[in-house]
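@channel sequence for tomorrow's demo:
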Amino acid sequence: MISTPTLVQEAPIVRMTNSVLVGTMKFTLDQFDANFNSQNAAPARLAAQLTEYRDRYNTLNSAYALTRESLITLDIQGLDEEGDQLFIGMKETVEGARRMTAVPARKQAGDRLWVFMKKYGIDVKENMISEWSKQQQMTEEANNSAQLTADLATLGLTEMWARLTEITTMLRDKLTERSGELPAQKAMKQAREAIYSEYRLLIQLLNAYALVDSDVHKFDALISTLNNNIDYVRVHAMTNGGSTQGNGGTTPTTPDNQDNPGTGDNTGGGGTGTTTPTTPDTPSDPGTGGGGATGDGWEEG
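structure tokens (generated this afternoon):
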């Protein structure tokens, strides 16, 4: 019976975050370099493709080094989440005050603030840009109103409101900062797309040589190592929905996980879920506030 060689399985490279992709491509390059050397030269066509692949990896790694989007995105997400919690807490306080008929001053303050906040129809589940824009207008109006400022003080919300105001300003600055990095993001997207075909051809050639070589087990060790890493990435380093643009803060010239280096740093990768996004680049609208939910989140009372 003819022994069938093991082949490299398909890797979900298009669905990887930037950090995971860079780490996986570097790991692949390192394994080829370790397997083929002066004592064990790669077949001519495979060696030529390895050179092309190395060039594409260097371009990808350089583009990744210039991309700080994930650090800014993490800051934006953190501010957005803090703002959501503040808004939810204040909304609950306002709604509670409206039921305090025994304390007229608090009830009246709650009624006025409820009408005011309801006017903006903010829902923390909506697109972050829309939510942020409404919050910015809302905080500016309240801060310029002596009555609303007094009502916030009556309900003990002055400090929380001040922090929400600060967050809206910080979000504006962070979003502006990120928009200035679009050229770097575009370069990263182009570098990603360029390496896909080179990686696939490299793996196809390796599989082809494994099938036709007289020693059917000649490439087993290399193929097994690549497959183990692909399995690890698929299980532990894929994003759990949303954009795949979690870039990480540093360039992984060597992968962070030395046992399974293809994971890269996976900063911002979003966990280990199996739901994967369809595009590798960051949308122009970050939508980090949950996106797509409808309704204003207010109930009549």
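heads up for whoever presents: Residues 241-297 have pLDDT under 50 and may be disordered.
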